[in-house]
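Feature request, filed as a ticket because there's no other form

It would be nice if the structure record came with a short human-readable summary line next to the tokens. Right now we just get the raw output. Example of a typical job, pasted below so the devs can see what we mean:
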Amino acid sequence: MAACKFLWGVLFAILPAYTVSGAAVSNSKSHERDLQNNSWHRYIRSPSSDLVKPQSIPSANITGNVTNPNGLLTADSPPTILTRKEEDTDIPSLVIDFGQNVVGIVSINFAGSYNSSEGFPGLKLAFSETQQYLTNVSDFTRSDNMGAGQKLTNGTDQVRGYTETPGKTCSLVCSDGLHGFRYMRIWLDAVEGDAPYTQAYGAVSISSIELKWSAYLGTPDTYTGWFECSDEDLTQWWYDSVYTTDMDTYTFLANETDPRNSASPTLQGKEVIFDGAKRDRDPYVGDLVVAALTSYLSHDNPDATRNILADLADHQRSDGWIPPASINNYTLDLYDYPMWWVICTADLVMYTGDTDFATKYYDVMKKTLDNYYGQTLTSNGGLLNKTNGYGDYAFLPRSGVITYYNALYIHALQSAAQLANILNHPEDSRIWTSRASAVSDKLLARNWDSAVGAFFDGGPCPNDAADTICNVHAQDGNGLAVLSGSVNSSLANSALDYYGNAASRPYGNAFYDNDLLSEGFSERVYAFISYFELAARFAIPGASGSAIEEIKRLYGWMSTHDPEVTFWEGIGANGSPYEEGFTSMAHGWSTGIVPLMSNYMLGVRPTGPGFKTWQICPVVDAGDLTWARGEVGTPQGPIQVSWSKSDNGTFEIHIEAPEDSSGVVCVPTTGFNSTRVLMDGKQVRQTANASILGPIATSGDGYELVQTGGGSHTIVVGV
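Raw output as currently delivered:
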């Protein structure tokens, strides 16, 4: 028996009578009882094992002479037979539906074949995440996107039969690189150049098909964090987001990554989080801003993030710029991603406690903030002024004093100042904190549009003078400016109100409020950049209801449109994939509902490395939610939170935290029978000098801050 594996994840082995193996994919008392019963397990989307079976054969997609099409779903039923005579013009084909997006290597087990002449009947395959873009060519194949002379195959996804050595044959799927998909089209045909070994007619009998899962397999035993709330959709989308990032998490292999000269010996063989499952493109640091948080909050698997951050830092340019990915030999021109590297590094330290990483790369961070971005600050205004041709997360050629770049700079400076304090660099912390404050003030003075009560994007309109400001407002700048605390709560609510009204679409909030910069911008939605606007809405008192409403539109749209379950790279006009079939429909940067629910709805966030200190500041006034519960894993052990609001006007929160940790609990006091707060049966007073991250709560402003150590505590309000 000969076995051959040929890129793009399809494995075939020829057995006697033509058997082949072959790529693709499956109240408080009651709360306590549910916790003990692991009720959250039912939401997990990952297969229970690494062998995945297809779910159905849509009858509408069957053409030609196909006998018993459902036979290939199980090994114990009569086989599926595709038959074609030489004179037939109607090609036998069918579509295999795995039920949801999957990623891996498919085995096609053949019961036999027949051809009246020399050679085997050929098969062709095509893979797609959606039925809309399921054609005779897969959504994406590396060979179809490589330069002249680099193409690996002469066709897309063809099965070819030929004699490898005397007496042995091998069939190959001529494609390259693993990919995510839901649908697999299979039909009887052949590549002309393979004659006489493969023919376009005959009969092929398929006994079964199964997929060997290749990405991170997130089964219940791998979860170190979980979430549930009284809204079934929000709960399910949390787990769907985890599944999306799991699909993107696997080993970097040179021949399966982005074809644009991205192969890197320093990443080879290491686990990473890729930029989407379908295209096996490359690990980008911008994706990690959200995808890494999703990973930290669901699984104990920080190496996938750490490997990327370290590799990009090791390729820092002499002027301080950090590449966004290994593409083009670490030279892809993106202006904003070095700042995201700083923020991701701070998150790594806070969620995992890895201060050694921050110590090793501290000078890299300092060089990025002070040298690279320092040289682009305006001499008179102290604001970032982008004049080079670099793009950003959406490859936008924006130039000038852009709100997004400056708000992101503030966020990066704040993150760096936090790390500097942790690593005992007080002077750096002072300088970066002071600079962040100064940039905030100057940004507000220059880019605030008082006519609408929100930030301008900040740059000129096309063909306008460089020092003018185009009358356009962007989601990225407004969301990050609010989230970084660049404006007070009044202006923050103004910006969020304006943007929610101006950019609302049935499938989320568009990333621009009009098309002055480019046609179609007011119809495009990125779940990635929406995350920061949504986080801002949760962080500002009184705005959380609008966050839930936006989440319902954004995630509700993606979860109910093909392929369902997994979340998209971008949404375009009328709610379609923004780059048609090229769009990744399982993208880690679109999984922000995980940190939104765990960090805000549960309220659990680290305030010290590895959650040595923490805060629990739950948002309890979001929509009509009545309870939430869950767990966040930490190096010291899990932090569990369960809160509920009762019909009789009381609020109760139960927390369990590692004994050797401590933190602050933000206890809501508005809207309940009384503002009296009892912890473990004893009345508590406002805690002096308690501090929290972000503007979510201030003692006396509808919340009471309670400092406490680890262990088990129950806090009740309204009794």
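Something like this underneath would help us a lot:
The longest strand covers residues 93-114.
The domain at 2-213 is CATH 2.60.120.260 (Jelly Rolls).
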